[in-house]
Design goal:
Radius of gyration of chain A: 22 Å
Helix content of chain B: 10-25%
Oligomer: heterodimer
Shape of chain B: globular
Number of helices of chain B: 8
Number of domains of chain B: 1
Order of helices and strands of chain A: HHHHHEHHHEEEEEEEEEEEEEEEEEEHHH
Number of strands of chain A: 19
Number of helices of chain A: 11
Structural class of chain A: alpha/beta
Number of strands of chain B: 21
Number of domains of chain A: 3
Largest sheet of chain B: 11 strands, mixed
Shape of chain A: globular
Largest sheet of chain A: 11 strands, mixed
């Protein structure tokens, strides 16, 4: 085992608010910065097989060689100091924090959302793990009975290499972008799910459900395979703010829907507002399969996330439903990527964004219909709502269609909550803020319905909360 | 302090080795512009010289340049072209014979290879300046100094604009004083003749308060292989004025065309600009509307009908800088064969440009299995009380439309032709000149015959 570099006290860096404890230097901490040694360290700790170790090293090289994509993306990326992060911390060695250290606004949000006491501590990072075993063991047992594999990615790699290796890194190659390369070099955590042919998982599987799992998050690597005719819904994140000390998050999520399978992946992202959240998510849909991304981004400083679907088999379907809410100091750069690679494939993108205060929301999309296909359809709608006069919104779609047997349409609009509408509601006794919240909830209502019940209720409350103080 | 904190591996990109296959620079890349206008003012000669230096310094836009996404700046083959030679008497006669312009016109200029061969400006109202670029340099230096190529080229062709400025000698300058309206259009023909000849036509239109003018530029090829036109139009609309401007590019199929237009809309002005792309193997237009005056309006229109392996590359910017302004863009492309179209448009609404109305629509009609349409409609909004939308569609002719016509006994091919004609004519009508509409529809018909 490689020992961690020894640093004297002046090297200890504080990478964000709330992290003021003295990090222990031992075998569970890879130290700051990212080098071949860091990668070896992680591979050693995780007891990786050789092919994964090699995969990590190659990825590191790609990460180092790739320039920042600032020729199209925000210059804010240049503020990421890669040398000031720790790329691996095992559970037991998370920086300790007491409840008193948690900022008041975060506590207030917990109150308002009605998060149970136990969960609050977990969400605030006071407790390393939220023990969900009792609540969810029935579901786990039920899905295991059906032959569903639902483990963390490390376990998946060790126990089910025959399935894992076949698909790992195949949907999103290491070199896809700088951050997928970073993830490939240092990934840890995340889920591995395999649903056998014909199995329809009734209950949504949640990232929380995993027992003894590493915390999802920082360099999460998730791989979900739904075999022929299988159906599964996966949910990650939660509506309450995750108070985070690690400010760089770069996950890679790969979905494989075999013939006739259906995967729905629901994300509610509410990282604290110091987090760079740079995520690559993509699914492959084989013949008659369907991949749906339901994505809600509320937190983080900068999120760059464009869930994609490669429709590889005939009649495959892809869908992205996206809600983004950007408050002051936030940039939600989200979108969708739809690659049609077979006949009669259809894709649908519906994106709604809300910019509050000086927040900036961006839609970036790609629709690609290459030559010699027929019967492909794409529909893209993106609507932006600006709440304040200094709010920002951008839309940058790219639609490329070849041949005369397809149809695509793209529509985008930008609007405000009209003064008339607010006046009308206030006439009926609502305060201006309530009127505004109601209007905003109306704007995204049809998309919120796509989320599971308990999420959609919390989402509405959360939006009310974000809207506070934005008017008047 | 321990040294282990420093990154162990600091990557430095390998030096780019000089590719031995790269041919030595030639043609426009190295042809130093020669200025023989004795009367040109010093500021102009200095700018022209500086532009040449800038052209040589600026790199060719690379594939990572967002303004060239899905396109390629190498499609404009500078090395293959040289500035056009003075036309022969036979060229001139042929060009004049082929110049069939509008009957109803206020004035006309005909240039061959950037040389004036005919001018007719007798029908203009008093006070209007409508002269060649060379004459304007001599007689209206101050107006030129104020308005000639004053806006930054933000859509990717700064290098080509610098080349234009270094070589420009032909074109028209039209200055319409306060409260004067020129009802009929001013028409300008630019012919290019000779193998690999390049022309650099310029159009500058400046309107005073409440003035009105309409100008039509034509870019055509006479004979010879692969011409190149790098044209720029500057449109400056004064308070309450109206400008309509059309650039009709019908160069030969093996030519290359670049048209950069810069529109500055002053308070309550209304400017309508129209791009017609029918010729050239590669044609690119970059159109920028700066809405700097409150209540100003810019209509941006375009039609194209690429066939064979033609590539049409369109970049637009609707830049809202003042409140209560509106802009409306409508670009339509009907594609055949293996042709491609790239539309990249952006609406920006600056802080403070409240009550903006901005719209952008790009519609592509794909008529063959190998035609490819790419649309990049963009929005960047930083203001309040903004009504803004964009739409982009790509698809074939709808079966319903086709059925409707066929049910009336019209053949399949005729029905398709009618639909395409109607599709494109809808845009041309918005330009609001009946004679130009008829002329262009006839040209579109001719091209459709070739396409099917």
């Amino acid at each position: 085992m490689v020992t961690a570099p020894e640093n004297d006290i002046s090297d200890i860096k504080v990478d964000s608010v709330g992290d003021f404890t003295f990090p222990e230097r031992n075998k569970f901490d890879s130290g700051f910065g990212i080098t071949d040694k860091t990668v070896d360290f992680i591979a050693d700790v995780k007891n990786d097989p050789d092919w994964i170790r090699e995969f990590r090293h190659k990825a590191l090289k790609v990460f180092q060689d790739k320039p920042m994509p600032t020729h199209w993306a925000t210059k804010d990326l240049e503020n990421i100091k890669f040398d000031e992060f720790r790329y691996y911390l095992s559970d037991g060695q998370k920086p300790k924090r007491s409840w008193d250290d948690v900022p008041d606004d975060v506590k207030k949000t917990f109150d308002r959302l009605g998060i149970p006491e136990q969960e609050r501590k977990f969400l605030a990072g006071v407790e390393a793990q939220y023990d969900s075993e009792a609540a969810y063991s029935n579901i786990k047992a039920a899905v295991a009975e059906q032959g569903v594999i639902f483990v963390n990615s490390t376990e998946g790699l060790h126990k089910h290499p025959e399935i894992f290796r076949k698909w790992f890194g195949k949907v999103i190659p290491t070199g896809d972008n700088k951050f997928s390369a970073l993830n490939s070099a240092v990934f840890s955590g995340g889920s591995f799910i395999y649903v056998p042919p014909g199995v329809k998982v009734k209950h949504p599987l949640q990232a929380y459900f995993r027992i003894n799992s590493e915390q999802f998050g920082q360099f999460e690597r998730t791989l979900i395979i739904a075999d022929e005719g299988a159906e599964v819904m996966y949910m990650e994140g939660c509506t309450a703010p995750k108070f985070e000390t690690a400010t760089l998050h770069s996950a890679v999520v790969e979905l494989v829907a075999m013939k006739g399978a259906k995967i729905q992946y629901v994300t509610v992202q509410n990282w604290s507002s110091n987090v760079f959240n740079l995520v690559t998510k993509r699914g492959i849909a084989h013949e008659d399969a369907e991949v749906r991304w339901i994505d809600c981004n509320i937190g983080s400083r900068l999120t760059m996330k464009y869930p994609g679907v490669i429709m590889k088999g005939k009649r495959a379907r892809g869908e992205v439903i996206s809600i983004a809410l950007a408050n002051s100091g936030q940039h939600q750069d989200t979108g969708a990527k739809m690659v049609h690679a077979a006949d009669d494939t259809t894709s649908n993108v519906i994106s709604k964004s809300i910019s509050i205060g000086q927040g900036r929301s961006t839609y970036r999309g790609l629709v690609h219909i290459p030559k010699h296909l027929k019967g492909c359809k794409n529909n893209t709608e993106c609507d932006a709502l600006l709440i304040n006069s200094n709010s920002h919104t951008d839309t940058y779609p790219a639609i490329s269609v070849r041949g005369n047997q397809h149809s695509t349409q793209h529509e985008a609009s930008v609007s405000q909550v009209s003064a008339d509408q607010i006046f009308y509601l206030m006439q009926r006794g609502l305060t201006e803020a309530e009127a505004m919240s109601l209007s905003v909830n109306g704007f995204i209502n049809d998309l919120v319905k796509e989320f599971p019940m308990e999420y959609s209720v919390e989402l509405k409350r959360l939006i009310d909360l974000e809207m506070e103080g934005s008017v008047g | 302090m321990s040294a282990t904190l420093a990154p162990a591996h600091k990557h430095t990109p390998a030096p780019v080795s000089q590719d031995s296959d790269t041919p030595a620079p030639s043609g426009l890349e190295i042809t130093v512009p020669v200025r023989d206008e004795k009367s040109a003012p010093g500021w102009f000669l200095a700018r022209s010289e500086a532009a040449w230096a800038e052209f040589q310094t600026l790199p060719m836009p690379g594939i990572k340049d967002e303004n060239w996404r899905y396109s390629n700046s190498k499609k404009i083959e500078l090395a293959d072209h040289t500035p056009a030679d003075a036309p022969t008497a036979a060229n001139t006669a042929a060009a004049l014979a082929a110049t069939e312009g509008l009957k109803e016109r206020a004035a006309r200029f005909v240039f061959v290879n950037d040389m004036l061969v005919e001018s007719d400006t007798t029908n203009l109202p008093a006070g209007v300046v409508c002269v060649t670029f060379a004459d304007a340099l001599r007689d209206h230096s101050e107006v030129l100094k104020q308005h000639f190529m004053q806006r930054e080229m933000t859509l990717g062709s700064a290098k080509f604009a610098a080349l234009h400025l270094a070589h420009v000698r032909a074109g028209a300058v039209i200055i319409v004083p306060k409260n004067v309206a020129i009802e009929k259009p001013v028409e300008i023909f630019h012919w290019v003749v000779g193998d690999h000849a390049a022309i650099f036509p310029h159009t500058l239109i400046v309107t005073g308060d409440n003035a009105e003018v309409s100008v039509v530029d034509h870019y055509r090829s006479l004979e010879g292989e692969g011409g190149l036109s790098i044209a720029i139009a500057d449109l400056v609309g004064g308070r309450g004025s109206k400008i309509t401007y059309a650039a009709c590019q019908e160069l030969a199929d093996d030519a290359q065309a670049l048209h950069l237009s810069s529109i500055v809309a002053g308070r309550d002005s209304a400017i309508k600009s129209f791009q017609v792309q029918l010729g050239a193997s590669f044609s690119r237009s970059e159109s920028v509307s700066d809405l700097i005056g409150e209540g100003s309006r810019s209509d941006m229109l375009s039609v194209s009908l690429p066939i064979g392996e033609q590539v049409v590359d369109q970049r637009t910017l609707q830049n809202h800088k003042a409140p209560h302004a509106s802009s409306d863009l409508l670009y339509k492309n009907a594609l055949y064969g293996k042709s491609r179209s790239i539309f990249s448009g952006l609406i920006t609404v600056d802080e403070g440009a409240h009550y903006t109305d901005a719209y952008q629509t790009c519609r592509n009609l794909l008529n063959s299995d190998e035609a490819e349409a790419t649309s990049l409609p963009g929005l960047e909004i930083s203001a309040d009380q903004v009504k803004c939308s964009h739409g982009a569609t790509s698809g074939p002719i709808s079966d319903e439309e086709l059925f409707y016509l066929k049910a009336r006994g019209i053949s399949d091919s005729e029905s398709r032709k009618l639909i395409i004609e109607g599709f494109l004519a809808g845009v041309i009508e918005r330009f609001g000149n009946g004679e130009l509409l008829d002329t262009l529809v006839a040209r579109i018909d001719e091209k459709l015959e070739r396409a099917v």
